[in-house]
Every structure is written in C-alpha cells, then in structure tokens.
Amino acid sequence: MREALASVIAGHPGFRLLGGWGTLPELMRGLGESPADVVLMDIQLGESMDGISATSEVRRLFPGTAVLVLTVFDQPAVVFEALSAGAVGYVLKGAEPGVIVAAIEEVAMGGAPMTGTIARMVIERFHGRGDLPREQPGMGGDPDILSHREAEVLGALAAGCRYKEVAARLGVSHNTVRSHVRRIFEKLHAHGATEAARKARAMGVRLPD
Questions:
Q1: Using 50, 70 and 90 to split pLDDT, how confident is the model at 102?
Q2: Dmax (CA) of the chain
Q3: For 22-55, what is each residue's pLDDT tens digit?
Q4: Could you report how far apart the first and last alpha carbons of the chain are, in Å?
Q5: What is the mean pLDDT of residues 10-21?
Q6: What is the location of CATH 3.40.50.2300 in the chain?
Q7: How far apart are CA 123 and CA 117, in angstroms?
Q8: Domain topology for 2-126
Q9: Do residues 6 and 17 lie in contact, with contact meaning Cβ atoms separated by under 8 Å?
C-alpha cells in the first residue's frame, strides 16, 4: 500500500515525495531530514496501533506538518482520537487515487478533507447524536482492570520491547502476546502501547519494568 501511494504521489505534478516510513522512529528521522507539508498516516503501524501516538508526535515536533489519516479504521473512538491527536483529515483506504490526491491538495491548502461517512460521524457528534467513546463502568481508578500477565505485557511494551521480545521474556508464544495486547487495548480503549500505559498508570495500575 505504501509503495502504491508513493508511486501515485511521486507521479503527480506539483507533489514531491520525501519518503515512505513504516515506524514512528523512521518517520521522525525522515521528517527531521526533510520537513514535509503533509504526512499520510495509517493507524496501524507495524505490530501496533500507534498511528495516533505518531500523529501527536508529528504535531508536537513538526507543527508545520499537517497529518492526513488514511486507514481502514472507521470506529468512532478511533476517528475522534485521531482528530484529537491533531489529524486534520481522515480518509478511508479503498478511496480512488484521485480522491487521495485531492485530499492531500486540500490539506496543503488548509482544508480538512474527510470520507463522507467520517464527515457524517463528526457532524452527528457535533449535534450530540454520535456514537461517542465513553468511560466504561469499572474503569476509573481500578487497579485490577488488567490481569497480572496483561500488566507484565504492557509494562514490557511500554519499556520498548517488541512483541517477539515480550514473548521470549514471558515464555509465551507470539500469538499469546498479541491476544493479551488486543484485550489490553479493548479494556483501556487505547490504540497504542504508549496510550495504554498512560491510561493504566492513571488508573493506579502498577506496570512492571
């Protein structure tokens, strides 16, 4: 997908492709070397859903760079968290190349392009009728929200370990780690390890180093 997008962007008059990166560190290095006007951001980066954290970091470190989300995720909680993190547009994958190009141009000119269903979602939220993410019963201040093993997994991820390293450290399979991570994100309504760790600690959960 990234290679296809790179081809479309590089071949469009008036666009200059600066690079394509698959992880947050690679993105930060790339933008540090060649600041961009617009970054196309997916929510799913590698093995985790840290595109939202990446959006926040881009906006913090490169305030002149606008972030346009291009992803398959259309859940209200994900949409609004991405917008809250600083994304100025939200387009769903599957859009025609011309639509993506037009969205990039609109962002560069100060606009906020969104796929129709996403725009409707935002409007409904503005009018108070949307499917809004709310804190779930039993979450606030509950140190038992995560099991001991889930806290171990999240602590390792927060310390910078990759899934394979977590699996080796805990003596479990890679798939087991992924299952734990999925449940952690569901319980904490988080979309990345950094966000999940922050929320867990705020709830009083002690995360092992």
A1: very high
A2: 55
A3: 888 888 999 999 889 999 999 877 655 578 888 9
A4: 36
A5: 90
A6: 2-126
A7: 10
A8: Rossmann fold (3.40.50)
A9: yes
CATH fold for the domain made of 148-202: Arc Repressor Mutant, subunit A (1.10.10)
Delimiting residues of CATH 1.10.10.10 domain(s) in the chain:
148-202
Integer-rounded Cα Rg, in Å, for the chain is 18
Contacts of 183 (CB under 8 A, 6+ apart): 150
By the 8 A CB rule, do 114 and 88 touch? Answer: no
Count CB-CB contacts under 10 A for residue 141. Answer: 9
pTM for the predicted model, two decimal places: 0.61
SS (H, E, C) the chain: CHHHHHHHHHCCCCCCCCCCCCCHHHHHHHHHHCCCCEEEECCCECCECCHHHHHHHHHHHCCCCEEEEEECCCCHHHHHHHHHCCCCEEEECCCCHHHHHHHHHHHHCCCCCECHHHHHHHHHHHCCCCCCCCCCCCCCCCCCCCCHHHHHHHHHHHCCCCHHHHHHHHCCCHHHHHHHHHHHHHHHCCCCHHHHHHHHHHCCCCCCC
